[in-house]
Amino acid sequence: MPYDPRIHHRRSIRLKGHDYTQPGAYFITLCTQGRQCLFGNVVKGKMQLNYLGHIAFNCWEAIPDHFPHIELDTFVVMPNHLHGILVIIDTSVGARHCRAPTTEQFGKPVCGSISTVIRSYKSAVSKSINIIWHTKGQSIWQRNFYEHISRDQKPLDHIRQYILDNPQRWADDPENPQHNPDDCEFLFDIPF
Questions:
Q1: Nearest-CA neighbor of 78 among 172, 156, 5, 8?
Q2: Which of 47, 71, 82, 186 is deepest in the core (most CB within 10 A)?
Q3: Distance of CA 163 to the CA centre of its chain
Q4: Is 183 or 142 the better-scoring residue by pLDDT?
Q5: CA–CA separation, 143 vs 149, rounded Å?
Q6: Residue 94's Cα: distance from chain center in Å?
Q7: Tens digit of pLDDT for each residue in 47-74?
């Protein structure tokens, strides 16, 4: 069914009025559909990527190839989610270009925005995995993503450390399916 604003009432979780094309550091968290562990496992506090995990990792590393205004900062691919910092760099030379703020609207992507970058990333990973699993159009990701805009160095350093420590805290991570074994709904039958 196509999107109909009279029927579908999607509420954005983005910061109202923020221009997500503006320079800054954006802490991103993406979760797999049903929080299924698709990307590998944590062994002795270290993430061990499987083939699908390497796809997620390599596609994340390729973001600046497709979006030159994006720099990668710290990131980690976990069994069922990804944490990463994307930095939009100021590519203007001299005076900033004056333009109206660009805010995302459903069905109207904004070129170069964080949402557009994440949409492209999720699509690339899903497409590659669908080829491997001989499925068609299956998104491996939950709808939407979590983001936090980091405006100061100290909180950004704290986020970096959180990302780096994530594999060591996997046993206590709320994203770990061991905490909610009844909520498991598998997209793929993956033997780990």
A1: 172
A2: 82
A3: 13
A4: 142
A5: 20
A6: 32
A7: 999 999 999 999 999 999 999 999 999 9
**Sequence letter at residue 35:** R
Helix (H) or strand (E) holding 83: strand 81-88
Residue among 25, 13, 29 nearest 174 (CA): 29
Report whether pLDDT(14) > 70.
no
Residue 174 pLDDT: 83
Question: Could you tell me where the DSSP H helices lie in the chain?
Answer: 51-61, 63-66, 114-133, 153-165
Alpha carbons 186 and 34: distance in angstroms, whole number: 7
Contacts with 132 (C-beta within 8 Å, 6 or more apart), sequence order: 51, 52
Output the pLDDT for position 101: 46
User: 129 near 51, Cβ under 8 Å?
Assistant: no
Under a CB-based contact definition with an 8 Å cutoff, are residues 137 and 122 in contact?
no
